[in-house]
Each structure stands twice: as structure tokens, then as C-alpha cells.
Amino acid sequence: MLDPTPKTAKDHPEISGGSTIGIKYDKGVLLAADTHLMYAGCYWYKDAQRIHKVADNCVIASSGDYADLQMLLKKLKDKNDYDIIAEDGHQHYEPKDYCKWLANVHFNKRMRVDPYYNSHIVAGVDSKSGDKFLGTVDVHGNNFEGNYVLTGIANYFCNAILDGNVTDDLTLEGARELMTKCFTVLYYKDKSQGDKIQYVTIDTDSNVNFEDPVTLESKWDYHFTKHLTNDHTRDVRFKN
Amino acid sequence: MWNDSNKYDRGVNTFSPEGRIFQIEYAFEAVKMAATAIGIKTEEGVILAVEKKLPSRLMDPTSVEKIMEIDYHVGCASSGIAGDAKTLADHARVETQQHKFSFNEPLKVEAVTQSIADLATHFGEGSEGMKEKPMSRPYGVSLLVAGVDEDGPQLYVTDPAGTYLKYKACAIGSAAEGAQAYIKESFKDDMTLKEAEKLSLQVLKNVMEEKIDQHNVEVASVEQTTGKFRIYTTAEVNDIIATLS
Amino acid sequence: MSKMDFHAKLAGNIFKIDNDDTEKAPAMERGFNPYVTNEGTVAAVAGKDFCKVVGDTRCSLGYTILSRDLSKITKLTDKVVVATAGMRADAIALHKVLLTRIKTYKAKFHKYPDIDVIARMLGNTLYGRRFFPYYTFNLLCGINSEGEGAIYGYDAVGSYDRVNCGAMGSGSELIVPILDNQIKDHNVLEPEAPSDTEIVENVLRDSMHAAAERDIYTGDGLEMFTIDKDGIRFEKEPLRRD
């Protein structure tokens, strides 16, 4: 018999994370994300990890629905486990493969009009060739690689900072400086951006380094934040 | 009462210890008893000729359909159980049309043959209640598949086992051996289509028990120049018979 | 109906069933829309014994550029490429399906399909998704079995036609009139195909630069594929990045 209730799908993300950024530097890839998760416009969790290791040489950073991400991480873990359990002396899945696989999963879900509401940055180092990999996947399954990639609202704010500055001889310090600049701008301009940022590096020797989150330095005692600068234009004034 | 051979001859899915499937071999026997069919390939095209066995002079010979068109560019001549031949030809017709729909080009002659051979090997599969249950026994028929494609004129022969082979000229049916010997003597690589027409009917004439006339044989050709399959009219057949020695 | 309206309708009709005929103020966007457009432009001209195809390499989403270096053109066989504007994720999936079907064809028939065969293949593949279309606008370009340049143009659901030149994507409105004007005898039934590769190349290059001047979804990089009896050649050059 036909099920009388129509099939429903989640039509927007619930608890979700904001922007993430990935930058290639000369000896590896730097990823960063804040540690906040939002729900209904509030900071719901303030110490969530949004960058995860999915294999010895592969890390993903994700924006969007956190429950969907946890589901995907479970699938990714299964995938990596099978790869290891095979014990055939090979690691079959490279970062590129994880990226493509994630894209296929997202494309499949969007075809069912019941998508995983995430965009990911997949970063890593190819275990055979030693090449750096940095790619991104979005909710529709679109995916591509780049010297730097962005997810979320960073696409609107950070292209201008990074474009042209991410060169082949960029050092880790240089990359970190750019990254800090990006997140500072986001913190000032995006209401949903947190100031606790976690940096993760993965270098060409496949060392994955998850750093402890750091708090962004920010300055709020500007004149315009303290004084109503447009007082004289107002017809109706509210005063205490 | 039970000897070695008929212990294994009932199931179509069972090999005998000597590695034979008897039902397939019996299907070959059905072909060996049937009226002869001949195919000759030349550079100009392929000729198919068959003998029609007419059990009664009251029967309308046009209703014995042993040569069938599969697509514009391919046809087949059969020897064996006529109903099985029609099933295989129908299958091939569907395949060629489907290919034309999917790819906007005629199906290659080898692929036509392959599709026939595929169906021929699918006997004994499936289960009751299936929408289209495959045949439960091997097809008791051999086909001469003649056609023209980008590789030129070609002649293939299929058998009940689903094997298919490419020939320059071939005879199947009850007089296959004798006919094949005749063809081998007279066949030349640079034959014209006219010579092949004549040879095919000459061979039939030699192996047939009945006296050959335009009603008890059927001739068809696929020509390289037109790329088309065509069954000859009785008048045309008569004209060829008139030239025979 | 403008092209964007058509796109919106294509995407919207399938997922919003609304039997109410009265005009209503558009409701706030709710739910998941499986379609986005990443646009970009591709164009091609078929010559007497060659075919030239150009495409930009920008991939955008709304007013943001997602990538400045994403190819829209995929090589299918030694004689055929497909150039696709529209939604990237769908285009990638479509190209993958085509490559698989061509591989299957090769295994079955021991030859690579000619462009007219691939043309039907692509038409059927697109129509197979008639009720959840690939949001892609394709030009299938190459040389046919006679060695002539051939282009097939498609809509999203697979109706197709052989043309002697064409453009697809967000810059197509800017390029089509240039091709109409510059490619000889465009509006006659049996046009004479151009035989000078240099003229064709310049027309296509200039068309793309023209589109990049005005169309915000076109730019960054220009890929030019040349297909002739010697195979497929490929060049890349910059396009304006603003």
C-alpha cells in the first residue's frame, strides 16, 4: 500500500557552522575554521571542532549542518577503515579520492532533493606522489581544486584578500598571516563568525598538526562603535 | 535400460561427464534434418539461397518463410525449426531498431549476429512468472546472417550452441556436407554477385531431392552498392534457374 | 520570456506545484532548490575540415567567483569534444555518463562512435532526465566520418540540431549575433563552411573577449580546442578577470 504521508526532507540546516578557509603554502596546506556552531541565530556550541582528520594524509573542514557532517564523518571513517582492513600494503584512497567521493555523495543526495547541507574543504598530501591537494565540495556536488578555497560567506569577503597573494612560494607564516587577516575581516563583518579559530596544517611529509584554538585579536573601541555618528540626520531621537 | 547418454539428456543445465550438454546436441540434430540453406559472400554482396520443403502441392509456397529481413542492411536464412528461427529473427529486429534509436546508425552485422547468439545461449534461464521467461530449451535452428556495413559484405553463421563464425561461403541443413563440398570446388574470392547467385542455386539443384523450380527455392541478396537486403521475386529466381546446367 | 525566466521556470516547475492561477507575490524562498547556475560561455564554429571550440574557465555562483580555472570542455574521443555551460555539478555528471557510454560502445562494437552517434547518445541521455533535467547547455563539436567539421547544439532536455556555428551559456546572446554576422552564409540552408582556420579562430577569440567585457559570468581564462584530421589540439590564454 502506498504510504499516505508525503515524503519530507529537511529543507534547511539546523545547527550549523560558518566559513572555513584552506590555503596552500610551499610545504603543505593550512586549514582554519572557527569553533562556533549556530542554531536559530544563536551561538549554540562554542567549542566544536569543525576540522577533522579522515585519513593519515587527509583532513576536511566543513561548513553547514553539523549533524550531516557527523553522518558524513561516519561514512568517511568506514571508508578509511575498509581501506586499512584490506591490509594489502596499499592505501587506496588519496585526498583527491575522498574529495571526489564526497562530491558524489553530495550529488547523489541532491538528486534525491534531500541534500547534505554542507560545503567541505578537503586538504591533504598524496601518499605516493607527495603532491599537495586542496579541493572543495558544495551542497550540489560541485567540486574543484584551487591554491586557496573558501566555504560559506568567506566567498564574499576573502577572495579579495587571497586572490593573487597565494603564490607557490608562500611560507607557512605568510599563509597564517593571510588566514588571520581573513578571519579578522570575517569576525568584524559576519555576525555569525566566532573569534576562536583553530588552525590545522598538513605538510608534504604528511604530518598533520591540529593546533589548539586561538582567540582572534580584535579592536572594538573605534569612534564609530562608541558614538552615534549619524545623530544629526535623525528626525526622531531616542535618548535615555 | 539406462545407458550413459540418456542419464544426462533431460536437463539443459547439466553437463555429461564427457563435457557435453545433450539437449544442445539434439538441437544440432534438428538442424541436420532440416532443409538446406546456402550463403555465399562476394566483394559485391552476399547471396542467401534456401530450399523449401513442400510436403503437399496444395500448400502455398509463399507461406514458407525461410529468408527474413532483419533490418534494411541485414537478412537471415534459416535451417531448422521455423518457429525458433522467427523468434531469433524477431529478437534481432528489435535489437537493430533499438540500436538505431539509441545511436542513429545501423547495427553492425557482427553485432546483429552477436545479439542472436546471446539469445540462443540464454535458454534454460529465468523462472516461472517472469515477465518474459527465456526459452526453456536450446533453439533448434542455425541461421545464416548476411549483411553489409562499413566493413563491407559479411556472412555469419550461428548454431544452437550460440557459437557464431564468419564465412566466405557456408551451407547448413540436411545436405550441408555435400553442398559445402560443391561450393568449395567452385568458390572464388573474386566472384561476381551474378556468379554467386548461379552457384548457390546450382548447388541447391545438385543436393535437392525435388526438381528445382522458382517455388521450392528462395533467394535473397544484400548488395554492397545499395547496402540493402532484398528477397528475389519468383520471376528473378526463374531467370537464374534457366541458366543452370 | 527571457532566458533567466526560462531557467527559473525550468527549475521551479518541477519542484513547486501550484494549481492556483491567480498571481501571487512571490513567497520567500523556502526549501531546497536542487538547481544553481554557474553559467559561463562556450562557442564553436565548424569549418570545412576542422572544428574550433572555445570556452571560458570561470565558475561563478551568484556574484561570487568560485573558481577562475575550471574547464567547460571535455574530450570524448579523438574526434569529438563536448562543451557545456550551465550547472557545473550536472555538467560533471553528464560528462561522466557520456564517457562511460562511449567506453561501453567501444567495448561492444570495437570502434569509437562517430559524432552523429554521440549526438544521438547525448540527446537520449538528456531526454532520459526529462523530468529532472541536467541543467546544462551543450555543444557537441568535432569532425564527422567524412572529415567535415560538425557541431550539434542542445537544449537542457535533449532536443538537438546540427548547426555550423553556435554559442551557449550566459554570454551566448552576445556571441550569437557576432557569429551570425561573421561566419559566412549562416542563414542559408546549405551554408558553405569556412575553410580558413585563422579567421575562425580570430572570430571566436574576439567573440569571447567581447562577451567577457559585458557578461559578469564570463572571464578569467579562454580555452580553445581545435579538432581536425590530426586530432585535438588545445590552447589556453587569459581573459579579463574583473
- Global geometry of chain C: globular
| Weakly predicted, low-confidence segments of chain A | none
Structural class of chain C: alpha+beta
- Please tell me the CATH architecture of chain A by its name: 4-Layer Sandwich
Biggest sheet of chain A, in brief? 6 strands, antiparallel
Counting helices, strands and paired strands, the structural category of chain A is: alpha+beta
Spans of chain C of 5+ residues with little confidence (pLDDT < 50)? 13-22
Largest interface: A-C, 20 and 22 residues
- Strand-residue fraction of chain A? 25-35%
Overall residue-averaged pLDDT value of chain A = 90
Average pLDDT taken over every residue of chain C: 88
Molecular structure report:
Chain A is of the alpha+beta class and 240 residues long. Chain A has helices spanning 66-85, 95-111, 154-157, 159-162, 172-189, 223-226; strands spanning 16-17, 20-25, 28-34, 37-39, 42-45, 51-55, 58-65, 118-125, 132-137, 143-145, 148-151, 196-203, 208-210, 214-215. Chain A has one domain (16-233): 4-Layer Sandwich (Glutamine Phosphoribosylpyrophosphate, subunit 1, domain 1), CATH 3.60.20.10. In chain A, the strands form 3 sheets. In chain A, strands 1, 6, 7, 8, 9 and 10 form a 6-stranded antiparallel sheet that branches. In chain A, strands 2, 3, 11, 12, 13 and 14 form a 6-stranded antiparallel sheet that branches. Chain A has a two-stranded antiparallel ribbon with strand order 4-5. In chain A, strand 12 and strand 13 form a beta hairpin. Chain A starts with 15 loop residues before the first strand and ends in a 14-residue tail after the last helix. Chain B has 245 residues and is an alpha+beta fold. Chain B has a single domain, classed as Glutamine Phosphoribosylpyrophosphate, subunit 1, domain 1 (4-Layer Sandwich). In chain B, 35% of the residues lie in helices and 24% in strands. Chain B is globular and about 55 Å long. The model of chain B has no long low-confidence stretch (mean pLDDT 92). By secondary structure, chain C is of the alpha+beta class. A 5-stranded antiparallel sheet of chain C has the order 10-1-2-11-12, with helices on one face. The longest helix of chain C is centred in the middle third of the chain and has 22 residues, at 88-109. The model of chain C is unreliable at 13-22 (pLDDT under 50). Classes of the chains: A alpha+beta (240), B alpha+beta (245), C alpha+beta (242). Chains in contact: A-C, B-C. At the A-C interface, helix 2 of A face strand 4 and helix 2 of C.
